[in-house]
Amino acid sequence: MISLVYKEFNAFFNHLTGYLIISVFLVALGLLVWVFPETSVLTYGFADLEALFVYTPYVFVFMVPAITMRMISEEKKSGTWELLMTAPLKPHQIVISKYIAAVVVITLAVLPTWLYYFSIYQLGAPVGNIDTAGFLGSFLGMLLIGAVFAAIGLFSSALTDNQITAFVIGAFLSFVLYFGFTALADILSTSSLVLLVEDLSLGYHYESMSRGVIASGDVYYFLGWIISLIIVTTLLIRKR
Amino acid sequence: MDHFLDYRHHLIDSEKMKQQSVDIRLKKRKRLIVGIVLLGVLWGILFLLSEFTRFRIDLTEEKRYSLHPSTKAVLEAIEEPLEVDILLSGKLPGGMRRFQQNIEATLETFNAYSAAPITFRYFDPLGIKSKEERDEYIIYLSEFGINPTNLFATENGAQTSRLIFPGVIIRNTTHETGGLLLKGNRGMSPDQILNLSVENLEYELVNMIRKLTRKEKRAVAMITNHGELQDDQGFGIVEALSEDYEVYKVPLQQAKSVKDLLSFDVVIVAGPRDAYSEREIYLLDQYLMRGGKLLMGIDPLAVDLEKAGGEGTVAVGFETGLDRMLFNYGVRINKDLVQDMNFGYYPVVAGEFGNQSQIVPLPWPFYVVANRMSDHVIVKGFDQVMFRMVSSLDTVKATGVNKTPLIFSGQYSRKMQQPVRVAFEDMSQEPDISLFDQSNLPLAYLLEGTFSSVFENRFLPKAFEDDPDFREKSSDGALIVTGDGDWLQGLKDPSSGDPLPLGVNPDSEANFANRELLQNMLKYLVDPNGIMATRSKDLKIRPLDKKRVQAEKSTWQFINVALPVGLILVIGLVKVYLRRRKYAKRR
């Protein structure tokens, strides 16, 4: 299994596309957090990286499916899938390995944002006036939402043998689950369904995490999504 | 024959295929069922986990998203869903945005603890289309004290200003309440006001929720019959407290025993002029000894301002008998009057103009506008409070009693020792600041702890000579003393003669925080560890170094946008290089 994780991880970084995806992600975040006056921490004026944690899901919606899109679909298309299936691995082991690889890639991709932390640390008045523990908590929340998106992306990749289609489906599903339900809740605003819809929304559960509060309800909710999607993906690939 | 055979062969083949497809279908169905069962089990386990292993870790340094136990208690008792309208909406500058986000976050945290759901939405009063309805709604908001704040901002180099309503409306199915959330002291900078308001959000919001959900009122006694506030003069107290308490006027003479007082949560003594009898002092003393809470505004000196014209008059002392009692508890009210350079005005008739009398506001240093508050939750971040003829307080030794000063006079103040001459004449010129050589004289004290009875080791008053319930030491009583009784008395509207709420200033726009002060004092006395304690939350301001941000803006932007990408690319190049070398070696 570990060798599969390693292979998958290497496959991502042996292609120029991998670097491109991460670079685009980092540039987008950099612009949102530091340059665009509407969202920048510099205009905000407080040593608080809320912008990073609020806008990361927006960028994740595109980045994570791009990372996972080829993981299953491409193997199916190029025929290496048969090879993998005949390997002495159970289907769920294959899915979990690929999933772990995806999460590791996402973690590596967001790691450079620690630079933001050090910048704010320097810019605070006085220097170092930043809530470090709060930052770590928010960062953990950010990784968790990335992990949920990774499960969605992997699932999409198993649905089709075209990686572009996998990307589109993944991005769409992530978008609907993250923003769609929240938007729906806003529309329903007064109906009693609101609470149910809000409870389904990933964005709703991410909100307090993005502020550094790790609550059991949110964690279990995310874990539920991740494990469910891994189960469904495993069942999907066993069909062949 | 051949043909026939061929046909049979084909038949078998299709049969086989049928069998196979049935197999696949069966398998698929089986797998579907297995999948559904697995998912069901998973969510069941997660549900059970979330029911029984509830946790909530607030990683922020100041625990800014955690609630005080008393707040949780209020929230856990909510019976019906609450809806909150956040009136602060629209495009906002950084500080206000932070405030808005904090309102949202606080409400969400509330929701996490409350027994019934708390939902919120943004509602901009200025967004109401019809002008009439809009104006009506704005007037409705002002009933809750939500007045618009003018927000100035620089946008693209141009000054813009617009109105915002930094408050909320909270409703359940039957009632609606609301309040202003942006509050501070006049002397504070906008940043300080914002930060203080953020710190107080939990308190302000839970206070409103409690108002909506509270079922019974507590009882407060106002002692009468010693020349305390007369008729209308008590209006201010009743008005300020009627929402949360039932206020009763209690003539102490009629109280038979201390038991009659014990049904009151707080007893207020507001500016008595006549002496309390031994028996009455005994009742108050024993009330305190049994865990009663006293709020006492005492005027040791009084002035009839009607006589302050011309030569003026001299302040005369009262003997209420209460000062001895207070001395025993640990605080002494001095027979003096405090003057402060931060003063109020007294309207005097300066003369006639035609048939109209000319009223001139006279600078009146005897009206102390106090704006130095201690950090105690009762007064933390309070706006200024108006005292009229206030005496200074000193503490005296009383073992077991904690004495906390709450309010101080300003930086330039002085004590006028008896006999104090009071004349309008003296104020025709602005007072000379060099004479105000004292500063921050305490004007209000909170006493808590174990009090000793005034009657300890003494003969008891006749009526209670062998009172079996006499106590020498208190359990958990508390006492607030101010050197003035008038701050508890509202002014009158000069044109209609109607009494005004506490702290409302008929002569000018600026009001004082007297009403809130009274409310907070009572809230604290009634339940010191209750929601008042949530005001002790202390959030750090974490501003960026504005000068540095301005000077080095582009540098930091470049570093943070380019460097992470550069890092990734460097890793990529190294990897490609290593791969090349590996290849080269192999060859």
From TrEMBL, chain A:
Spans traversing the lipid bilayer: 12-35, 55-73, 94-115, 135-155, 167-188, 219-237
UniProt key word DNA-binding: no
Subcellular localization: Cell membrane
Pfam families for the chain: ABC2_membrane_2
Membrane topology: Multi-pass membrane protein
Keywords recorded for this protein, A-Z: Cell membrane, Membrane, Transmembrane, Transmembrane helix
tRNA processing among keywords: no
Protein name (record): Gliding motility-associated ABC transporter permease subunit GldF
Encoding gene per record: gldF
